């Protein structure tokens, strides 16, 4: 089952690659429509939109999925229900592909809901209390986005069709389009875990590691970013300014929290949240092509990071604490090298894949007229990215071991082959896609200081992290419980979510008690019908009783007459 799925996904990615080159070179767009049903002036149409963007994204989704499925054959070899797991992964990938190729809100909702439901099944795959809580948090947070998509579908009914591509001319003049834009942005924020919907993303780490590699690289969390790229022409500048501030806060919060975290998978998840904030910030600056470039670049090295983390956890007896994972360079040199390359790509080391997208984003950001607050937030967030990346490298390679050296390396070529494909792509494909997508020169005019400040921040944060982790100053941060908890718990966002949800549950109970179970229940249609039926039955019984009484009286009169 694993090999067949791997083969089909890999071949599908190669077909998508060929079509991407053909469509991009000839500037082709193909749109297909199938009318399912038509009633009055409304028609339900299933649409498929094929252009270079959807084909390239499908190529990356299928390539990463093929690597994850091949990796799962070895990683989950002792799993009894492996076929069920592979089928869930296939459903997950198909839902994402439906979302990618859909210009129609109804078919987008099918893919969107498919992602939410299958992700819930995958998060609770290991059936324990923690997984159930994480799955419920993920499902409830994503349901908010589903509600906004449904509301935007209702608003789109004013136009007679759900194909948003046909109504771009109405985008800034019509009140309905303003409402639709706000709902689409809120839906994308829930799926891509922006503040205040960020708490579900680290909680989703309860899923198996191959699922984490798929969810946090190219499928679930990137769905919101991709939706905004597609709906970019419908957005107003006011909404983009709000999104700019919220995405900047998300990026900064995730970077700070990752520097206080010790769970290996949660650090990588928080780095995903930080990069999602960067993508949302780039969209809010109206740089959609650059956002898409960073989206596909990030997908490859983030999946590589998760797969490396899975092998490390596998060989350290399911331990995820980085304080007990040390001297990796002596034990697993290939995994250590791969993990370090992926981490350096994440923090944007020059001439790796991540450098091309992040460097261009920062340079375009510097070219725009943003205020000092956004500049400060952007550079601090980039600095925290470098800091937690080198902190991770420091803990797994340079720190003295805190655990007995009893671990052993399960050498399995299946895992290594899947890593090798992603490693080659993470190192080289960033420059290739940069040359393809941005073949014309971008005119960037910056001063020498603005150009070099990125490298200064990279070097400064790397040195600062090494100093703080080597001297006793870090005890000030870790022993101050209030600061540590505030930073480690994502600015207390999980607690805030719980409080809000509990208040909503209690409010719904009160509403149910005072209205549905109160006087409103008595005047509802069902109750009125029940009352009428009772009266009708009473009337029939009364008639029967009267008839019986008359018969009894007549019988008595007859008896009295004869006696």
From TrEMBL:
User: What region holds the NADH:quinone oxidoreductase/Mrp antiporter transmembrane domain?
Assistant: 102-378
Subcellular localization is given as:
Mitochondrion inner membrane
Pfam assignment, any one: Proton_antipo_M
EC numbers for this chain: 7.1.1.2
What GO cellular component is one of the record's annotations?
A: mitochondrial inner membrane
Q: What enzyme class is recorded for this protein?
A: translocase
Where does the chain cross the membrane? 6-24, 44-70, 82-101, 108-127, 147-168, 213-231, 238-260, 299-317, 337-356, 377-397, 417-438, 450-471, 541-560
Single GO biological process annotation from the record? ATP synthesis coupled electron transport
**Keywords, comma-separated and alphabetical:** Electron transport, Membrane, Mitochondrion, Mitochondrion inner membrane, NAD, Respiratory chain, Translocase, Transmembrane, Transmembrane helix, Transport, Ubiquinone
Task: Report how it sits in the membrane.
Answer: Multi-pass membrane protein
Write out the catalysed reaction: a ubiquinone + NADH + 5 H(+)(in) = a ubiquinol + NAD(+) + 4 H(+)(out)
Q: Which residues form the NADH dehydrogenase subunit 5 C-terminal domain?
A: 388-559
Name the record gives this protein: NADH-ubiquinone oxidoreductase chain 5
Source organism per entry reads Aphidius gifuensis (Parasitoid wasp)
Upper classification of the source organism reads:
Eukaryota, Metazoa, Ecdysozoa, Arthropoda, Hexapoda
Gene from which the chain derives: ND5
């Amino acid at each position: 089952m694993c090999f067949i799925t791997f083969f089909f996904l890999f071949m599908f990615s190669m077909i998508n690659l060929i079509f991407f080159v053909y469509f991009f070179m000839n500037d082709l767009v193909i749109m297909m429509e199938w009318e399912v049903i038509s009633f009055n002036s409304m028609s339900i149409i299933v649409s498929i939109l094929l252009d270079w963007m959807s084909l390239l994204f499908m190529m990356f989704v299928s390539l990463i999925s093929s690597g994850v499925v091949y990796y799962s054959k070895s990683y989950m070899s002792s799993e009894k229900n492996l076929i069920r797991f592979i089928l869930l992964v296939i459903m997950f990938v198909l839902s994402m592909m439906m979302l990618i190729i859909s210009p129609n809100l109804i078919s987008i909702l099918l893919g969107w809901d498919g992602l939410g439901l299958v992700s819930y099944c995958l998060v609770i795959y290991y059936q324990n209390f923690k997984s159930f809580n994480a799955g419920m948090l993920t499902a409830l947070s994503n349901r908010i986005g589903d509600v906004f998509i449904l509301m935007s579908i209702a608003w789109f009914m004013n136009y007679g069709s759900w194909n948003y591509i046909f109504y771009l001319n109405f985008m800034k003049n019509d009140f309905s389009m303003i409402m639709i834009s706000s709902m689409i942005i809120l839906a994308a924020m829930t799926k891509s875990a922006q503040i205040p919907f960020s708490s579900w993303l680290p909680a989703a780490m309860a899923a198996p590691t191959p699922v984490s590699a798929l969810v946090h690289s190219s499928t679930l969390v990137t769905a919101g970013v991709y939706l905004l790229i597609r709906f970019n022409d419908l957005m107003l500048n006011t909404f983009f300014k709000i999104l700019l501030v919220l995405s900047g806060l998300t990026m900064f919060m995730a970077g700070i929290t990752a520097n206080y975290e010790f769970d290996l998978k949660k650090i990588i998840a928080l780095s995903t949240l930080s990069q999602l904030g960067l993508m949302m910030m780039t969209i809010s600056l109206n740089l959609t092509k650059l956002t898409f470039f960073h989206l596909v670049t990030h997908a490859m090295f983030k999946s590589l990071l998760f797969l490396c983390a899975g092998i490390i956890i596998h060989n350290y007896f399911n331990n995820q604490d980085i304080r007990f994972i040390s001297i990796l360079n002596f034990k697993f040199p290939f995994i250590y090298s791969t993990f370090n390359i992926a981490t350096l790509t994440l923090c944007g080391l020059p001439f790796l894949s991540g450098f091309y997208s992040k460097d261009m984003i920062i340079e375009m950001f510097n070219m725009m007229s943003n205020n000092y607050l956004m500049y400060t937030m952007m550079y601090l967030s980039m600095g925290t990215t470098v800091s937690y990346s080198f902190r991770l490298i420091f803990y797994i390679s340079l720190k003295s071991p805190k655990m007995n050296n009893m671990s052993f390396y399960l050498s399995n070529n299946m895992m290594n082959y899947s890593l090798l494909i992603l490693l080659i792509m993470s190192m080289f494909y960033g420059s290739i896609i940069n040359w393809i997508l941005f073949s014309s020169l971008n005119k960037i005019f910056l001063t020498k200081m603005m150009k070099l400040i990125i490298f200064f921040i990279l070097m400064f944060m790397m040195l600062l992290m090494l100093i703080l982790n080597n001297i006793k100053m870090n005890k000030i941060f870790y022993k101050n419980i209030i600061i540590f908890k505030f930073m480690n718990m994502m600015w207390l966002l999980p607690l805030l979510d719980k409080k809000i949800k509990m208040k909503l549950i209690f409010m719904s109970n009160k509403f149910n008690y005072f209205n549905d179970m109160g006087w409103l229940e008595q005047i509802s249609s069902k109750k009125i019908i029940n009352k009428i039926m009772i009266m009708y039955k009473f009337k029939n019984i009364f008639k029967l009783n009267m008839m019986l009484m008359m018969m009894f009286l007549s019988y008595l009169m007859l008896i009295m007459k004869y006696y």
